[in-house]
Design goal:
This protein is an alpha+beta fold and 457 residues long. Helices cover 13% and strands 29% of the residues. It has three domains: 145 residues, no CATH class; 68 residues; 108 residues, Ferric Hydroxamate Uptake Protein, Chain A, domain 1 (Beta Complex).
């Protein structure tokens, strides 16, 4: 079904607007019409300190009763977020937090205590969502700050720090603020106490779950696979198993000694030293873009001093700073869990004190891998591929309550736009709801109801 959208202002002039559009079954979407929305948040609740019950009630009409209720609300609410006398005074209030114009990562480089280390060399490696490498030097107090890097969805950052003299016995302490704990969601109200719209939605949701179990019972049955006997044989390795950097205490059958390797001291990269030295390990390309595979099974997992990193972090480390490299192939890599079918390459860097074992479960000296929450990445709402050819056409499925959703719908300069969605097989009344903000910052919303005749059998 094609739907055309026209957005106009109070004077009937077209307005270019960004909207969120949803099409759902009218019965499932019939929630409280006085609940909050984009317009009530921008124009009312975001400026009030207290809780506002049924905020859309104050925007439903321009009757004197509604206007009086709005006046009473503002007379009993604290509706100023700042004091004008302080803003207009001779001395402006101090700025506690600077305006954030992009993602940033700041922190301190310290010794094993809390003393900051000045002029520490930092390498910033971002692997997701975009690859980038930056370098910086800490200030007199050991502080650093990286800004302006892309961060859609989640930014995966690897930081490496070295003293000015080259030592890596330092700690990277990022500024992450106090820990946050998610509040548990309140339980759903019982059907008897829920509003009519919510109770109807809960009832339909339970009916839908029953239908799904009937239509696809295999999806709710636990599947088990019985594995055959596996014989594991090995030999004693001349490697310190009590090294706290070693994940799961695992030691590979293939260990390459870099500390006593002349090639590793000649300025080559780690991958260049490994070329041709390990059976089944294929390394192609040239630095910094080198492709690594173990027995042609895809990219392996890379571990640096007990932390999983990307190949960019490994390729950026000079080979003369590495103590040893272990290569896990085939079944011996299974201990590392999901994604280890391509093997595992574990790199262990040199340490100043051979007897230093580190702190159990603590951060690795000179290394930090961190995931920063970034900007929300808009995703496409799933819709069945109705035009795709199928060999065995499934039976009609009338269970979908939400038919269409697009949070990034936009109209042109004439205020016009259109979208396409497929109706449900069962037919019925469907509600189209739109909410958004124009390019000038004015909120807008609209609703419409359409009727779809059921498909004939």
């Amino acid at each position: 079904m094609h739907v055309k959208v026209q957005v106009q202002d109070a004077g009937g002039q077209p307005v270019a607007t960004h909207l969120s559009v949803a099409v759902a079954e009218a019965g499932a979407a019939s929630l409280d019409p006085e609940a909050g929305n984009v317009a009530t948040n921008l124009l009312l609740t975001s400026d009030l300190a207290g809780y506002v019950e049924n905020p859309a009630y104050y925007f439903q009409n321009t009757n004197p009763e509604t206007a009086q209720a709005l006046d009473n609300l503002l007379l009993t609410q604290g509706w100023r977020r700042y004091v004008w006398k302080q803003v207009l005074g001779p001395t402006p209030p101090p700025i506690t937090y600077p305006a954030e114009q992009s993602l940033s990562l700041s922190g301190r480089v310290t010794g094993m205590g809390q003393q900051g280390i000045a002029n520490s060399q930092l390498t910033f490696i971002q692997s997701k969502p975009a690859r980038s490498v930056l370098t910086a030097t800490t200030g007199p107090d050991g502080r650093f700050n990286f800004t302006g890097f892309p961060g859609r969805d989640t930014a995966v950052i690897t930081l490496q720090a070295r003293r000015q003299t080259g030592g890596s016995n330092v700690m990277i302490r990022p500024d992450l603020g106090p820990p946050t704990f998610g509040a548990p969601l309140p339980p759903l109200p019982p059907l008897a106490a829920a509003p009519p719209g919510v109770a109807d939605y809960l009832r339909r949701s339970r009916q839908q779950q029953v239908q799904e179990r009937q239509n696809n019972p295999d999806a709710y049955v636990a599947r088990t696979v019985q594995l055959g006997n596996v014989a594991v044989t090995g030999k004693k390795e001349l490697v310190a198993r009590d090294d706290t950097r070693r994940l799961y205490g695992a030691v590979a059958n293939t260990v390459i000694d870099f500390a006593n390797n002349l090639s590793a001291q000649s300025g080559l990269s780690i991958f260049q030293v490994l070329q041709g030295r390990v059976a089944g390990l294929t390394i192609s390309g040239s630095p910094p873009n080198m492709n690594v595979q173990i027995r042609g099974s895809g990219s392996p997992i890379f571990i640096l001093d007990g932390m999983k990193v990307d190949d960019d972090a490994i390729s950026s480390i000079p080979a003369n700073q590495v103590e040893s490299v272990e290569v896990f192939k085939g079944p011996e890599a299974a201990i590392f869990g999901a994604g280890s079918n391509g093997g595992v390459i574990a790199v262990y860097t040199k340490r100043g004190d051979k007897n230093y074992k580190g702190a159990d479960k603590g951060p690795s000296p000179g290394l930090l891998v961190i995931k920063l929450p970034g900007y929300y990445q808009a995703r496409e709402f799933y819709q069945p591929r109705y035009g795709a050819p199928v060999l065995n056409a499934p039976a009609s499925d009338p269970r979908r309550l939400t038919l269409y959703w697009d949070p990034t719908f936009s109209t042109d300069l004439k205020g016009q736009g259109e979208f396409l969605f497929y109706t449900a097989d069962g037919g019925g009344n469907f509600q189209i709801a739109t909410e958004g903000v124009s390019l000038a910052g004015d909120p807008s919303q609209g609703k419409a109801t359409i009727y779809v005749a059921p498909k004939s059998r």
